Amino acid sequence: MNLLLDEIAVAASRLAEAGVESPRTDAELIAVHVHGVARGALHTVPDAAFDPRYWDDVARRASREPLQHITGQAYFRYLELEVGPGVFVPRQETEVMTGWAIEALGEMDIAEPVVADLGTGSGAIALAIAQEVPGARVHAVEADPLARQWAERNIARCAEAAPHTSGRVTLHGDDFASALPDLSGAVDLVISNPPYIPVGAWVPPEVGEYDPATALWGGADGLDAIRVIEHVARRLLRSDGLVAVEHGAPQGAAVYWVFAEENGWRETRNHIDLAGRDRFVTARSGRWPVAG
Ligand SMILES: C[S@@+](CC[C@H](N)C(=O)[O-])C[C@H]1O[C@@H](n2cnc3c(N)ncnc32)[C@H](O)[C@@H]1O
Fold first, then answer.
1. Which of 5, 126, 144, 230 has a CA-to-CA distance to 160 between 20 and 30 Å?
2. Ligand 1 centroid to 10 CA: how many Å?
3. Residue range 116-154, pLDDT digits in tens
């Protein structure tokens, strides 16, 4: 053992007492952040190099500040994104929906598919699609000016790290309800992780106190924004285009019916996340135009 490993063990039990879900992992990742070493090299940090600022960050995490706000970074598929106050921290479950979209776009076999990411937050979904789908043109819509600043930063950062994505993500500062009027009927795939938590539902402090309210709450049943996305997707998609929308685990059946046949949708499907919970719905645009 060395001093750092001893301190990590103490920090892990402190985080566990504070109710943190993955205390050992978080204690280690904070040590990685503070000491600037790889996780697999933590045991090589000499005792004299132990940085006492470690305990400041552990205290922040024990007060339930999200790990990603402390490190300033979030990982999403093959991307490292900057995150912090004012932007939603991208989640693992959204990676699954994004992977579905990436595969579907590949199968479309279009040289420059047009994609709309409605409520882009940090830019996670839009940037992953630009990175993994050659030629994709992604329109990222975000109404919140603070979140948009993070998206701008991440778009610039990714253009540097992966120059092939440069210029392929366009950020639009609009409400998604009326966004992208020039692209009506011309979009190949609409994707969204909208706010979908029912007002009044319990959320952990990391979410309720740090994710922006505009990213979370979806009205009395949590479906307000999802209903808007359904309307917008109807307007934006070309015939046979695809939509993918994330939702909360108990909302699978309700969201399925938002994308109902009588609204012109075909091939509506429920999909699960890595934990096996209902997590997103996909559908194909069909008999346009349909009233509504
Ligand atoms: C749950 S977050 C998802 C962010 C990102 N797509 C992700 O998956 O990490 C929802 C995002 O939608 C944005 N948003 C909510 N309502 C909106 C609206 N009416 N128009 C545009 N953006 C909206 C929020 O500001 C927030 O950034």
1. 144
2. 37
3. 999 999 999 999 999 999 999 999 999 999 999 999 999
